[in-house]
């Protein structure tokens, strides 16, 4: 893909995903404003992406691979089923 064909878009996260007729539809959003402490972030829709199911599964594998690499490098910490960070000190760090 040439630079003249490339489109770059920044998003803050995925706001919804659904599968319809073999196509995964992913909505991305951006923060409307920074949330105050304890508030739920408020996203506005920015972009919708459509992926055939096999393309979604390949992308998911790539994302899982990157997440594992970041965990092994210490960039990400594993979370338990409750969403709490797991650490060797019992979470007392």
Secondary structure layout plus pairing:
Elements: E1 13-20, E2 23-33, E3 42-52, H1 53-72
Antiparallel strand pairs: 1-2, 2-3
What does this protein structure show overall?
It is a single chain. It is globular, with a radius of gyration of 17 Å. The chain has a domain at 13-72. The protein starts with 12 loop residues before the first strand and ends in a 21-residue tail after the last helix. The protein has a three-stranded antiparallel β-sheet. It has one helix and three strands. It has 93 residues and is α+β, with helices and mostly antiparallel strands. Helix content is 22%, strand content 32%.
| Strand line-up across the major sheet | 1-2-3
- Give the count of helical stretches: 1
Helix content: 10-25%
Rg over CA atoms: 17 Å
Oligomer: single chain
SSE order:
EEEH
Tell me about the largest β-sheet: 3 strands, antiparallel
Number of strands: 3
Give the overall silhouette. Answer: globular
Specify the structural class. alpha+beta
Provide the β-strand percentage band.
Answer: 25-35%
Compute the average pLDDT: 84
Low-confidence residue ranges:
88-93
Q: How far do the termini sit from each other?
A: 46 Å
């Amino acid at each position: 893909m040439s630079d003249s064909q490339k489109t770059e878009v920044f998003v803050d996260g995925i706001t919804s995903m659904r599968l319809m007729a073999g196509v995964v539809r992913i909505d991305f959003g951006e923060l409307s404003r920074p949330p105050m402490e304890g508030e739920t972030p408020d996203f506005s829709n920015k972009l919708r992406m459509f992926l055939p199911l096999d393309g979604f599964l390949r992308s998911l594998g790539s994302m899982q691979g990157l997440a594992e690499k970041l965990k092994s490098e210490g960039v990400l910490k594993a979370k338990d089923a409750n969403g709490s960070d797991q650490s060797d000190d019992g979470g007392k760090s």
